[in-house]
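Support request from a user on the community tier.

User writes: "When I paste my structure tokens into the form, the page sometimes reloads and wipes my input. The last time it worked, I copied everything first. Here is what I submitted, just in case something in the input itself triggers the reload:"
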């Protein structure tokens, strides 16, 4: 404490004005009280989930839970191992299903079913090719689960194409959301009156947070935890501990240009700098 405090202040002063505002902001009373509150977190799994959509945010949450109490439940249609391998699915309408069995995969263990999941404060829905299969099969189990829990949740988060389930469940009505930019056209056909944001690393609208594709989920998780707990201290230290420099500008989105998302600015620079946060 004695020797870490002064350099912290000094280095803070050396940063840019934008960083100064963020770094010097001390946690609000609500953020302080959230630090001792035990948040119950649920992450949904389905066959064909995108590994990093789940593990990226989870990595950060696990580290943060060393300091701020949390519990985690992995929730799926059935308990046990859930594979990231996508079941065969129709890529082009009218064509036979594409078999993806040659892809390597990993399984995560579902601890609860949609019926047995405990009360939750935070629910995260990942994306992945598997949610195309769920849509094809008219499987609405994730959407029903979202609807049954939405009112009691403090926060609902989606990563990548996970926003499809939010759109289909109806909770995105008149709300801002974003998604994986390479699947923009497919995802944005779902939901009524969703305010899809074409260039966004992540969005927040009330208690709903949505991120762009895959790795963007880690940036959203950092922004989300900074909001809930305050970023100074544990949240920033975790970034330095896992040696990850999150993008902190929600409008930073070169992938909207790469993937020609309608509404994105094609003249936008594709290069941008990230740097470590905190100390
Ligand atoms: C899903 O619903 C559509 C429209 O009702 C139907 O045409 C299709 O056969 C259904 N698919 C499955 C796998 O049940
Ligand atoms: C979009 O999702 C697909 C499939 O999950 C993934 O392969 C791809 O990298 C994602 N694209 C972006 C821009 O994140
Ligand atoms: C603290 O958590 C509660 C949910 O339990 C939430 O309503 C409140 O907004 C949080 N505080 C902040 C600053 O996010």
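"...and here is what came back when it finally went through:"
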């Amino acid at each position: 404490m004695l020797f870490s405090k002064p350099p912290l202040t000094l280095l803070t002063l050396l940063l840019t004005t934008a960083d100064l505002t963020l770094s010097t902001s001390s946690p609000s009373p609500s953020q302080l009280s959230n630090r001792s509150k035990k948040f119950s977190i649920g992450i949904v799994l389905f066959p064909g989930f995108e590994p990093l959509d789940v593990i990226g945010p989870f990595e950060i949450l696990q580290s943060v839970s060393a300091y701020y109490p949390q519990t985690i439940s992995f929730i799926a249609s059935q308990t046990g191992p859930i594979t990231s391998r996508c079941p065969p699915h129709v890529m082009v309408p009218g064509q036979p299903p594409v078999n993806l069995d040659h892809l390597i995969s990993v399984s995560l263990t579902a601890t609860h079913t949609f019926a047995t999941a405990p009360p939750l404060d935070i629910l995260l829905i990942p994306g992945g090719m598997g949610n195309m299969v769920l849509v094809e099969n008219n499987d609405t189990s994730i959407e029903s689960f979202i609807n049954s829990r939405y009112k009691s949740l403090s926060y609902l988060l989606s990563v990548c194409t996970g926003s499809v389930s939010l759109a289909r469940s109806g909770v995105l009505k008149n709300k801002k959301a974003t998604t994986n930019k390479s699947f923009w056209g497919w995802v944005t056909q779902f939901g009524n009156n969703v305010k899809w944001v074409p260039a966004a690393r992540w969005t927040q609208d009330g208690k709903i947070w949505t991120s762009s594709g895959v790795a963007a989920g880690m940036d959203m998780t950092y922004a989300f935890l900074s909001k809930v707990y305050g970023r100074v201290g544990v949240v920033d230290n975790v970034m330095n501990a896992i040696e990850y420099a999150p993008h902190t500008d929600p409008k930073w989105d070169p992938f909207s240009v790469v993937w020609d998302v309608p509404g994105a600015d094609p003249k936008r620079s594709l290069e941008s700098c990230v740097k470590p946060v905190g100390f």
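Agent notes: The reload is a front-end session timeout and is unrelated to the input. The longest strand covers residues 70-76. The longest helix spans residues 51-64. Escalated to web team.
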